[in-house]
Amino acid sequence: MTIATPTPASENPAPTLREARVPEGGMFEGRRVLRRVPEDWTERPYEHITVVPQGRVIGAEIRDVDLTGPLAPAVFEELNRAFLEWKVLFFRGADLTPEQQAAFAKQWGPLETNPLLARGSSDEVARFDKGSSAVPTFENVWHVDVTFRERPAMGAVLQLREVPPVGGDTMWADMAAAYDNLPDEVKARIDGATAVHDFIPGFRRFYGDEKLIPLQDEFPPVEHPVVRTHPETGRKLLFVNTSFTTHIVGMDREESDRLLAYLVRQAHTPEFQVRFSWRQGDIAFWDNRATQHYAVDDYFPHRRLAERVAIAGDRPF
Ligand SMILES: [Fe+2]
Q1: Is the pTM of this model over 0.85?
Q2: What is the distance in A from the centroid of ligand 1 to the CA of 139?
Q3: Helix or strand run (H / E) with residue 78
Q4: Fewest C-beta atoms under 10 Å: which of 114, 184, 212, 307?
Q5: Which residue, among 143, 230, 182, 174, has the nearest Cα to 57 in the 3D structure?
Q6: Positions of the region Disordered (predicted)?
């Protein structure tokens, strides 16, 4: 008969957690910094419009305003303030003609034209018709419009003229929130950095060389700061995007690709986003300096027809 002798404690160590590899950049959870307005911003009540928030930091529906004619100065002041605070404004059932839509946008500044997009009823109106046989562009990637320009659009006004039975939403992300939540070491790495933007990566998937070559002199590659400052609110904004940012200046390809992949992924964070389900005649008016957007492409083969006008912007700094 064998009597088991107790194992000495030194031979039976406390269990330890096994090693498990965490992929680089693979963990991104925890409390977010969710600041909707600059820290020195004084919030005031709205007296001429009704502002109905649709998200924590971004997106508000505006009610009780008539967009069909010139805005009274007091109404314009409040709409502009809401635009800066909420970054994208929604107007249900506005149902503007293309001329009214352009006139509404022009109250914020001159409009720009875009030779890469299908034209609507005038040069100022770009048409996105996903039911036509024309070459469709897709916008189902997080992006900022026209950052390949030296002066990218400051904002855009989009109206849905025909909506699919289900789907076709658009999402926006607040790039001030994206910047606020970067780790300090990443902020230090991109502080003062610039990146090159080019229209070719975003459009070569849709158009052949014969369409792109004549435009490349008009749109040479441009450099923008990786972190731009909002010219009106003073907020710092992460300003690189999947469609047009090709590389960060002064980094080798591998380092630039890895850092860009990390930075553009910040727009994917749900706490920074708002999602809008369109009805015919609805309008969205977004600050193209402060946001990225993504047009969800989940309605094929149904038609989705949208028209957009874009307000010229200034040089990012
Ligand atoms: Fe876009």
Answers
A1: yes
A2: 6
A3: helix 73-86
A4: 184
A5: 174
A6: 1-20
Q: Domain 44-311 carries which CATH code? A: 3.60.130.10
Q: How far is CA 253 from CA 23, 200, 260, in A?
A: 20, 18, 10
Active site residue 293: yes
Q: Is the peptide bond before 221 cis (omega within 30 degrees of 0)?
A: no
Catalytic residue from among 36, 145, 174, 289: 145
Instruction: Tokens for 226, please give them.
Output: 């990786």
Fill in the DSSP letter of residue 24. Answer: T
d(CA 10, CA 227): 56
Do 145 and 152 touch, CB atoms closer than 8 A? yes
pLDDT in tens, 259-303: 999 999 999 999 999 999 999 999 999 999 999 999 999 999 999
Please report, for residues 177, 226, 232, the alpha-carbon distance to residue 193 in angstroms, rounded to integers and kept in the order given. 19, 6, 22
DSSP state of 169: -
161 pLDDT above the threshold of 80: yes
Q: What is the pLDDT of residues 232-269, one digit of tens each?
A: 999 999 999 999 999 999 999 999 999 999 999 999 99
Is the pLDDT at 26 greater than 80? The verdict is no
| Residue 171 CA to ligand 1 centre (angstroms) | 10
Q: What is the pLDDT of residues 110-145, one digit of tens each?
A: 999 998 888 998 999 999 999 876 777 889 999 999
Catalytic residue among 235, 247, 293, 304: 293
Active site residue 180: no
**CA 1 to centroid of ligand 1, rounded, Å:** 82
Q: What is the pLDDT of residue 137?
A: 80
Spell out the domain ranges in the chain. 44-311
Sign of torsion over alpha carbons 233, 236, 242, 246: positive
How many whole angstroms from 241 Cα to the centroid of ligand 1?
Answer: 11
